[in-house]
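Before our next group meeting I need something from you. Please put the record directly below this note.
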Amino acid sequence: MTHDTPAQTVSSPADQGRHAPQPACAAPPEPSGGWGELFTRQYAAQASILAGGVALYAMNLYFTAALLPSIVADIGGARFYAWVATGFLTAAVIAAMLVSRLLARLGAARAYLAGFLVFGAGAALTAASPSMATLIVGRVVQGLGGGLLAGLGYAVIRSALPERLWTRAAGLVSAMWGVGTLVGPSLGGLFAELGLWRGAYLVLLGAALVLAVLARRSLPGPVAGGAGLAEPLPLPSLVLLTLAVAVFSTSSTVPRGWPTALCLGAGLALLAGFVLVERGGRATVLPRLTYRRGNHLKWVYLTVAVYCAGVMTETFIPLFGQELGGLSPLAAGFLGATVSVGWTAAQLFSVNVRSVRARELAVRIGPAVLTAGLLAYGLLQTGAASGGRVLLWAAVLVAGGTGIGVAFPHLSVAAMRSTDDEAEGAKAAAGLNTTQLIAFSLSSALAGTLVSAGGEARLDAARYLVFGLGSLTVFGVVTAALSLRRGR
């Protein structure tokens, strides 16, 4: 991405006389690399569009989580509850593969325009849905647009901004997941409370159209010869990954017992096939650096995936808040945002940490803090929970969210610094979003299976979900330590 520079002008003698001469030793202040510089006139438009696209994507994901109980009550389809999120996320993974190709062919402005318009079309279809089947189709279309927006947010940081702003920009973009997941459940709960779930998606449509206009005006067009840089689509990897997500999702709809186990086993086999194809493929979903011996990028991505598995509990927290805590849709929406509150607050603090030792400590302890918060939430689950118990739920979920916030900005920068090659560095940055989308898709499908294992007993479903995903996040303690060791 290029930036416009102020046009140079030649001053007349009269103009020179009106201005006091500057001392020869007076040099312009060194750039601070702080928040103030990120939002100067030179970088503010780019930063706002990158952050806005990710915020819209993240808000929509959790927006729907707060609305789903009301949607199911209106149009039915409770059996396919998890498919609403899984369809969105699977489409987003596929769209994320198009990010670098669209950037090469269309440039940033047109790529963002495509993302916002497709996202808006999906929001319109979702708003008009007469049945769960139509709603899932609308969510798939939204996912295609959302995957582009989320991927573009990371893909252009390295080229759009100087290195001194990478940490701030990575913090801003990743903070939008927290902001989006804070606003999304809360706003979704408000619309559910008012009985206007369809209107909620019309609001998303309006926001997408406004951002599309801003992106078209603010971002540059295609680079000459850029289309020749586009890489082939990794179709074998995408097919295996999509099949794995579909099989995991199916496990939540089949009878419990051996059919569920069969689906889970098939899903794991497809995932293993995905990794094998990736390691030997010419075109890959994740950067080739991921599979290179000695490079720490794989451990960074696995740690990010662990965080995403923990965050996926937010999809069902509003449902459990209503059915176990007796909360209203609005209050349940706020409860669903508590992990994001901790995430966002901790992240705003963590991006200011400059000590290498402190950054390593943040990365190392993050997964343990998240796991502790989830396990505490699971242990505190009970039917007909009192107001005090619900407040405890909120407190431990906020605490768990801080584990994400303290580490995430530093993981983002670690990915961008995994290579000195400009092109590979951009792929590594975009791979963060791809990793998030893959992890969200797989953990969403697994979450549906865990909740289904609880049957009609919501208390059992809540415990299966939290303890099941918590058993995954604990592995982040190991992957975080390896990401530090391999990165030295």
